[in-house]
Write a structure and sequence with these properties.
By secondary structure, the protein is an alpha+beta fold. It has one domain. 34% of the residues lie in helices and 24% in strands. The protein has a 6-stranded antiparallel sheet with strand order 2-1-3-4-5-6, with helices on both faces. Strand 4 and strand 5 form a beta hairpin. Helix 5 packs antiparallel against helix 6. The longest helix has 12 residues. The protein is globular, with a radius of gyration of 15 Å. This is Putative tRNA adenosine deaminase-associated protein.
Length: 164
């Protein structure tokens, strides 16, 4: 079952910017949850000398980290199987040139760059542990990521605003 493009996808998309040692979190457009291109375009528009990346929590099912780099795009999809049901996750696997898993495979595994935030204080092994926390919702996993990198207060303040 693929969502039609008009249907809103539940969740949120946040652009995170680190500039001059300070963190900033901004809400991204609703299109970011539906189409990876839309999220990427929005992130590429952000002018910053520091780090810029996107955090998407989709439908309480999975999360996606997107980080534009001069050489392309780093991505981490928390659950490869999400590509079977969600366009944005399928787009991510396309970009990573990875085939989606079989329907029968109910194991959860992340796909993409586990070291996507390593330079910001979140080493790959720790991010792997966070993606493996199957009892947590994606927004809780993203909160853990924000905590580790040092922007939990900015992230939580934004979530409070957008979830009201």
């Amino acid at each position: 079952m693929h969502m039609s493009l008009q249907e809103p996808v539940a969740g949120f998309a946040v652009a995170v910017v680190r500039e001059d040692g300070k963190w900033r979190c901004d809400s991204m457009g609703a299109g970011a949850l539906r189409e990876l291109d839309s999220a990427i375009t929005e992130l590429r528009k952000i002018r910053s000398t520091g780090a810029v990346f996107g955090m998407l929590a989709v439908d309480d099912e999975f999360f996606l980290l997107i980080r534009p780099s001069p050489g392309g795009m780093s991505l981490l999809l928390s659950d490869a199987a999400a590509a079977l049901d969600y366009d944005v996750a399928a787009d991510a696997l396309d970009l990573l040139r990875v085939d989606p898993p079989d329907e029968e495979d109910d194991e959860l595994w992340p796909e993409g760059s586990l070291d996507i935030l390593a330079d910001l204080g979140l080493p790959a092994p720790e991010l792997q542990v966070i993606t493996g926390e199957v009892d947590l919702y994606p927004d809780q996993q993203l909160q853990m990521i924000a905590q580790r990198c040092g922007f939990a207060s900015e992230f939580n303040a934004l979530l409070d605003r957008i979830q009201q």
